[in-house]
Amino acid sequence: MNQQQQSILLKSSSRFPLPPGVKFSYGTSGFRAEASLLESTVFRVGILAALRSIQTGSVIGLMITASHNEVSDNGIKVADPSGGMLTQRWEPFADAFANAPNHHSLVQLLDDFVKKENITLEGAPAAEVLLGRDTRPSGMSLVEAAKQGILSIIGASATDMGVVTTPQLHWMVRVKNKGIEASECLLGYIPQGNSNNYMNDKLIVDGADGVGGQKLEKLKSRLSYLTIDVRNYGDGVLNEGVGADYVQKEKVVPRGFGPADAGIRCASLDGDADRLVYFSVVPNSNKIDLVDGDKILSLFALFIKEQLGILYGPEDGKLNKSYQASLGVVQTAYANGASTDYLKQLGVEVVLTPTGVKYMHEKAAEFDIGIYFEANGHGTILFSNNFLSWLEIRNNELLSISKGSNQHNAVLRLLAVSKLINQAVGDTLSGLLLVEAILQHLGWSIHKWNELYQDLPSRQLKVKVVDRTAVVTENAETVVVRPVGIQESIDAETAKYPRGRCFIRPSGTEDVVRVYAEALTQEAADNLAHSVVMLVDKYLGFSSR
Ligand code: G16
């Protein structure tokens, strides 16, 4: 790194000192903390993004958001050239860099890193970083800090995309780097299904009082085939009693919904619109029937399996079946046991990874069609380039020999799904359009969809502890190896409940340890979760000191 670059970095970083007594860690999807603590972090991630852009010769994205967290928090997510999450290889450096105690150590770290990564700054191609933010009040000043970081690298440019959803920004990065076309809408491709069972065609969407609700409110007038009533798109407090995280964890109606909505198909998205869950309000109660990410995954798997069955089925024998596409689904330990049983019965390969889109995406990409979803509603479908090219060729062949045949329609539907779904990252809005299209195609109501299988009752709780990093897990977070002894205690509790299952893990987005329990009855799942919360408190809580 030359003298000029060093002195620019020293000068700019001295304006963004590290707040005293705070340790930042690159969590499940980037850095997250109380917003007032984050200026130095986003400034530093700005520098990092510019370096990544130089190294890859591609556009990088930075999204200022804390997604499902409360409105006073904020954070930063990084989109790599593919539109996916930042390469995990850079995470340790991001950690060290975010915690460098002063501007001198920061520049020293940078100098070592660019040498190690063979990043040549002099005469490098211009770096380009796209910036986006959600609706949090702290977003604007943090975008400014990120810009200062980016512009501290000579020749780098920052383009502010304004208020966007996280998946929009990831998509923009992907489009810029791959030169691909924007999404097309699927509904036009899919023949209307038998709508006899389709009891209620209105969809009500809870916008979490965030950016996704605002975008959908604008988009809905262009979706003439759907009647969408968007609620919570800006007047209330972001994520407070609303949004996918609240609905999925609390299993009660969100703010703005009530008895008059009973039975209607409803959906809820999160603060930055990368998660989606569905629900229907139970009559005369504040409870909901939750249709979570596992059921979205199951619906997608069922639909894709059906198309592959037609494609490779006996019909007319005109299709060249030389390419056998692999189909796999990816879940985490949070997946309801009943969903995993259902998917296995469907004949789909199921793989488990630790929590986090970064792990799931990587696994899903190993299949020709890889579907991943977390129970919390974060997920998407990935298609391999080889399979898509094969489908395009078959489409052209079938156009001339059996246009409109079942096999031809199956080819068209798979191609249409690949264009509608956001293959960069989970995306509430494209996921929602795909769910709606499949329900129409099948002629299913939300209730019929919900009957695919019955969830095992579950409970998720969080516990404040002295130091959540003291919890170390393995086997896709199903076993705790530290603190020593706690896993045996959890096992002993779990054994008391028929079909009991329980695990704990440190959150990567909040300063808590999460506890998940499921069992045959709700009372049993609640009791198991509460007794494990007490165990966590005994081993790691403030009283354990
Ligand atoms: C992020 C991640 C998800 C993860 C969630 C909660 O979502 O992208 O993969 O499930 O955090 O993570 P944790 O349990 O570690 O706090 P989001 O929507 O909050 O960005």
Features:
five-stranded mixed β-sheet, about 20% strand, about 550 residues, globular, alpha/beta, TATA-Binding Protein, Alpha-D-Glucose-1,6-Bisphosphate, Chain A, domain 3, 3 domains, 17 helices, binds 1,6-di-O-phosphono-alpha-D-glucopyranose
Task: Walk me through what this model shows.
Keywords: Isomerase, Magnesium, Metal-binding, Phosphoprotein. It catalyses: N-acetyl-alpha-D-glucosamine 1-phosphate = N-acetyl-D-glucosamine 6-phosphate. This is Phosphoacetylglucosamine mutase. Its cofactor is Mg(2+). Residues 201-277, 292-444 form the Phosphoacetylglucosamine mutase AMG1 domain. The protein has a five-stranded mixed sheet, sandwiched between helices. A five-stranded mixed sheet has the order 7-6-8-9-10, sandwiched between helices. A four-stranded mixed sheet has the order 12-11-13-14, with helices on both faces. The protein is globular and about 70 Å long. Mean pLDDT is 93; it is low at 183-199. The two termini are 46 Å apart. It folds into three domains: 3-178, 3-Layer(aba) Sandwich (Alpha-D-Glucose-1,6-Bisphosphate, Chain A, domain 3), CATH 3.40.120; 187-455, no CATH class; 458-544, 2-Layer Sandwich (TATA-Binding Protein), CATH 3.30.310.50. Helix 2 packs across helix 5 (139-151). Helix 7 links the parallel strand 6 (202-206) and strand 7. With 545 residues, the chain is an alpha/beta fold. It is built from 17 helices and 19 strands. The structure holds 1,6-di-O-phosphono-alpha-D-glucopyranose. Residues 28-29, 67-68, 270, 274-275, 355-357, 374, 376, 378, 507-510, 514 line the site of 1,6-di-O-phosphono-alpha-D-glucopyranose.
